[in-house]
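Sat 14:20. Reprocessing the chain from the morning session after the first attempt stalled halfway. Input below, unchanged.
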Amino acid sequence: MYNDIRGDFMSLVTENTGKAIRTFRKKNKLTVQELADRICKSKATVSKYESGKISLDLDTLFDIAQVLQVRLEQLLYMPPENVPTETVTVPNFFKNLNHMYIYMYDGRNNHLNRTIINVFPENQHIFPAIMYMNIKNYDEYQNCENTYTGTISHYDALTTMEFQNQDTYIEKYIIRILASFLDAPTKWAMGFGVSSRPLMPVATKMLISKKILPETDDLIKSLMISKEDIRRMKQYNMLSFV
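Finished this time. Tokens:
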């Protein structure tokens, strides 16, 4: 029975790693043949990698990551289930959480922005993370507008996420969550970054969820800056979302 379970899991790892390779290859506008040429493999072999028919050795996976200009862990499979982590330094909201779903409303184009953060659990104070911002769909979320790598740091009353844009080093993105020690399905947060259209520093209202949320009118309305947000801003002469 153990061998069957292990075999099923390894098949899942191979299949999802291949899926990630295909997604990043398409994002880089490479054909299967072009990728094969760059890693000195046949087109048939690369096709089998992407379809999950054969597994990859670590050297080949590293070569593919270099060609696709991604970090190695971006190609690795992360189970959808939450992975148990040490809870000594992890606030309640983040306990056993390795995926986060972020929702923002972009007033420049009146569009709902969906973002996914993958957290890599480690038994330490700072956790590595990758953020895929403005994804097109949840099946191929790696195919997004911007990809960021960074860390998540937990403190007594505050959690801070600091990210670096992989393509534009001028941009660092910071997310701060208040009272992350209180557990809840969702949390309000504030994001700080740089808008490229037009070019300006921005602060963004965002909702962080443990699960994918229904994209309803109520969700979109809640993401817009409210009268209460404006009242608080006028009171303190500071922008804040709590």
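The chain has two domains: 2-75, 92-236.
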